[in-house]
């Protein structure tokens, strides 16, 4: 007597029916996630940014351009430019020195130094401005000495420079350190063995190797310096035509119900952000091409 063996092979239609549902369920997951991301960006970034441009040009190009020629706006724009021009070279020199010391030397407290450099990332800019006030204000640590020598830091341009330099301090160092560590020091040691001096090694070997990281850090430093609000508002006093930067001008004009002037200045800051993003993308592509080569 023969016994029929059970068949473990299912038909092709049954297999398709079994596997079709999971595939359909999985295909909806990325669509839902992308939709959530786009909706969130639209609510937080795209719609507010578009509204800024609509409000700025609501009465035409003529009023927009006239708002950009107001004395208060021109002074705020010039002051913002000065803050960036002063803080940028300061943080560039500091960032290069700090990156060189951290990437090329092992010393006790190296992790502490890295944490101090990252401090502007972790604390509120308002707290940073308060720290400067507690140091250089009338009742601060150095206040009596500064007042005795008729040196004004708080509610003056020097305090704004200190606040701007502080909040934009980490970018150059943080962009250059990983590039130096990846580049290594074999070529530098070879050049030193051949008799090259330190400044020759820096200009001919080190600087060309870190140029893209350095430029990336400079772009981010400039963007943060020109767009800083919190720390500068604490130490400046927001005095029109004296200590009012461009972000402070936007807030003050909006509070004074001069919405067109506020949105016009906001458009200028938004265009600065767009230029920063374009330059950032270009540098990232150049860096990627260099890594591939």
Write a concise synopsis of the structure shown.
With 293 residues, the protein is mainly α.
SSE layout:
Blueprint: H1 12-56, H2 61-67, H3 71-104, H4 110-117, H5 119-122, H6 125-136, H7 143-148, H8 157-167, H9 170-183, H10 186-193, H11 198-227, H12 230-236, H13 246-255, H14 259-292
Helix pairs in contact: 1-14, 2-14, 3-8, 3-9, 3-11, 3-13, 6-8, 6-12, 8-12, 9-11, 10-11, 11-14, 13-14
Helix proportion: over 70%
Which structural class best describes the helix and strand composition?
A: mainly alpha
> How much beta, percentage-wise?
under 5%
Number of strands: 0
Order of helices and strands: HHHHHHHHHHHHHH
Mean pLDDT metric: 85
| Main sheet makeup | none
Pick out the low-confidence regions: 8-21
Shape: globular
Can you offer a commentary on this structure?
The chain is mostly helical. Helix content is 78%, strand content 0%. The chain is built from 14 helices and no strands. Helix 3 runs parallel beside helix 9 and helix 3 runs antiparallel to helix 11. The termini are far apart.
Features:
globular; mainly alpha; single chain; 293 residues
